Amino acid sequence: MSTLSSNEITHPPMRWGIRFARLMEGKAPRRLALAALALLLAFLSLYPLSMLLYGSLHTTPPGMAGTFNLSGYIQVFTWPTAVVFANTVGISLLKTVFSLLLAVLFGWIISRTDTPMRGSLEVLITLPFFVPPILTAMAWGMLGNPQVGVINLAWQWLSGSETPLVNVYSYAGVVWHMLQYSTPFLFLFVVEAFRAMDPALEEASRMCGASQWRTFRRVTLPLMLPAVITAFLLSFIRGLESFESPLFFGTPAKIEVVTTAIYNSIHHQSIPNYQFASALSFVIMGLMFLLVIWQWHLLRGRSFQTVTGKGYSPRVIKLGPWRWLTFAVCVLFFIISVVLPIGQLLLGSFFQFFGFYQWDMLTLDHYRSVLGNDEVWRAFRNTFLLGFGGASATMVLGSIVAYVSTRTRWSGRQLIDVLAWLPWMMPGMVLAVGFLWGFAFLPGAITIYGTIWALLIAYVALGTPVSVRVMSAAYHQLSFDLEECSRVHGASWWQTLWRILIALAWPSFAVGWVLTFFGIMRELSASVLLYSVGSEVLSVVLLRMWENGQAEAVSVVGLMMMLLVFLFRWVQLRLIKRYVSTL
Amino acid sequence: MSRVLKWIVCAGWLVGSSATVSAQSADWTAVVDAAKKEGKVVVYSMALGAPYYAAVLKSFEAKYGIKVESLDLRASELAERVRTEQAAGRFLGDTEIITTTMIEEQLKTGDYVQKVGDIPNAANLREPFKTSDVSVPAYVQPMGILINTRLVKPEEEPKSWNDLNDPKWKGKILSDDMRPLGSGNTMFAVLQKKMGAPFNEQLAEQKPVFSRDMRNDARRVARGEYPIYVPQVFAFASDLKGLPVKVVIPQEGAPYAQMEFALLKNAAHPNAARLLINHFLEIDSQLLYANAWMLPVVKGAAERANDDAKAFANAKLMGMATLAERPAMMELARKLYQ
Amino acid sequence: MAEVLLENVSRTFGGFTAVDDVDLRVAAGEFVTLLGPSGCGKTTTLRMVAGLEETTGGRISIGRRVVSEPARNIHLAPDRRQLGMVFQSYAIWPHMRVFDNVAYPLQVRRRPAAEIRERVERALRLVEMERFADRPAPALSGGQQQRVAIARAMVFEPEVLLLDEPLSNLDARLRTQMGDEFRSLQKRLGITTLYVTHDQDEAMALSDRIVVMRGGRILQIGAPTEIYQRPNSEAVASFLGAPNLLDATVTGIEATPSDPSRFTVQGDGWQGVACGNQPFACGQSVRVLARPEDLRIGPIASDADATWRGEVIASVFRGARRSLRLRTSAGELHFEVPALTEARVGDMMQIEAARSSLWAVAPG
User: Which CA distances in Å does A511 have to A109, A193, A197, A240, A555?
Assistant: First the structure.
């Protein structure tokens, strides 16, 4: 099964399709296929987690003498940890709520109104998501520090005030920095959901005398519930696991969150306390699991099939002069979240040092050193290879898992859904250790450890939750008729998945692919523990540069990555546009 | 003056090379031959792409035709990978360059390293560096005080660690977090021992602001967010030339972290690893480190260092943190900096 | 062409039985309609034939091939049953052109491109959509989409065609037109057809035979005239048209044995003669079915089977006809008269049933 899912990228799917179709005949083979899928997912998620579970219950990590006890968990249930929990939940909730509001607003503006230049705005709004957080953190540190931050200096100069306007080294600073990442992330989810919706449903509401706003609130939003709730959950959970923002902006303000506590216990203890780190992670995971159950409860038994075989044509709302307001809102967000920090990086990359903008320090050295660095190119190549392979495999796996969990009544589908969720609920830093232990302690003949496969498998495991969520949300909106019609007319299960479901959901598929691809590009925790010489990936090289004081070179690479994103998104949106224009 | 210096350098070089020659016994020739046969060596290091480190590896490859694969990791990741690989029986690494305390820890918790054996160049180690059965010193990272020269007038420049406790710096010191393991705590521990307990208590009263990114923090000081940053690893300031910052070596001396080589159990290329260790202790190799404002561990390198590096290559050392005291020191720091 | 055979087919969802012990044989080339109110199990039955729903009991065969038989663990996947199907929503794939939609069944069967082109064109010509081949599917009107759906279902000349309320989304005029067109097409090609609808007019106009279902069971199978004129139960009778159903008691059986039998019946304030094909005994309660179109203002003929008197309580002009509602001792009766008939609310009148027009069924 694992070879199957990775082969599907390179081979035409149809050949497998026939075999798969044969396999799917009757019940016994279906159970077999289901079992194989469950087994694969178990290897991707359950296996590393079981290693961690051992770690959380044992005084020493696997492979060392020790005893079993609960001291890790006991340490979790103490007062200081409770404060850490409260901080974490509070920060993540705040940022998720605010960014969801923004994302829905932008999603609506971009997909449903006649706001000028919304095609370009769509690309621009999502840019911040793809910049390494450490870079924007540095940029915001330069912009918003209370002593010499550019914003504060400008404010004090304008107002004559003595006190600084903003201080990014604070609770609000942490939330703000996270907001810039979750807004584009949520936006990507929401905008596709808006696009996929039959406007007749909205029109019907308008005809019933509901105002535009009421329609939005009572019809549009509820119809998008699966997409919105899924996105909310993903983002909230990601918020709990966010690391760079609290480390950078929270530590000076003495705000500790779960991830920094884990970071401390692994990286900055006299003896790395894996027992506490993994116990804390499991407790977090338990909490997240409750959230996921809540989501199931909310969405159960409701149908959100808004894409039917009856066809629809996208409709935009004529805003009249108000469209300049919506345009301004988008532009403002773009300026604040992209132009300010990225401009800082871009500007800085042409000077010898960030923040020292003197003529005699103007240089192209950073570009030269990056472009002339074999290591960077090799890392780019590796990362691309892993990114393409990993994102494609992840999306195919995600498409299958999402299909099984949302569109069949097979027994065991919930299990598969849960298995696919698990890696998302484990803080990356800890899960990475689980992969390290897991791959290293496989039977000696299975040499995944120390090869590029270790990275690929870890990336697929880490990416699957998002891919499953993206595809489930998309499937949720497709009417069953479209799929059944294909089956009746002679298409096998696999052909139907490929030619009807994925073809119809492909804007979501593409978004999922891009999210996964750049997720892989950014992934550090697992990469650094699993990479081997020759399989260096970009994040590892960036870490080296950063630790080596080459912040400017790092931002050159970051800018190159952004250029890439720009290209990707542009091509993708062009394709979507062509697709939409055929409607 | 410069002529004298040249003589000294030459003399040092002569001494160094003659020591090498004499140590090249028949045994060592066998090691070199075996190393070349092995053809490759895998190093686990915490250098994270430092150019001087890369330069040493390059010169090794050029000299012996042996390929070096260097896996760069952060401290805890390195320790965990080594531990896991050894426990799982996947012996991918040959040697490691890690801090003295990490080797101590490895010795305490498991059986991961083997005897290094004789390394000819180790005879040339300068005081106070010594080899042990399982470790050979590689280089040293001392740390001092970083000041912003625009915000700190020359007459205000701290000369002693004690000057940090001047009331005028209250709330104006940016510091690497002293509570968790890291440079901040190393400084804390050494100063606690050498400057006495009241020093740290007073420093805590100064309310230093903690951060966790040493490279960026130095730049924040350069940009004027704070006038002072501690502890400044000398080497990390060597590439800030042109910025309004200056590294002060306090008169009491500099706390330091010492990096050492160890040979991993069941190494696939033990001879190549030994040869690499020996190569690291060549004066030319150490000179690369000295020029990056680090303290060379062999004689004859500091003298040849560039002018701007010389002070740092010859800095007075204050001491390093020990494994035994570490838990107590971390506990104390947590207490002082709630 | 193949016949479709359903033997004791049932489908349960947990404790709920959606289809209960259905027996049905659709002959090759025959047009059979499953008719019933929503929730009667007709769609589930169709979906079981399609393979979209698993059977929990019985056996389904298409041609000579058993496609579903849970007892022997047989459940052939829908794609291997060689069917054509038209969905209520048409299920036109919005990401494809008309041509691609129709070509799909051939493409997934890997037919050569030339053959695909030729057959798709033929299918589109059949439904008069050849000009729209390159149109994106969602840019079509409802009627056009329906034609495309039919073309797609027939493009590979399936042995059996399944239609799930294909006309319900069309307006009344188009519905009639499309129905007629489709029926003539089906007759011409002779495809075995299983058709699901809740619309009795549609069912009667199109079908060779109608299967009336309720509560997952078959109530009656027969030709449209038979179902309409000779329902075997009150449920069937009341589902077709909007008949008057009167309570009565059998008072005698006419001596001549004939099919159907004739009974004398007595109701509240009236008596008459009704036909029926069930063996009623004297004194038995029955329900007498009087269709509105069989009632007329009398007296006209001496051979009327029954007469009633009453007061007009509603009179509605409908163009071709006028609908009247009469309050009589037997209850309210509604019936239709020529449009120009003078009948005002409050008028008293006598009406009568045409000979052999009353039909008796068991109550319930």
Answer: 18, 12, 17, 23, 25
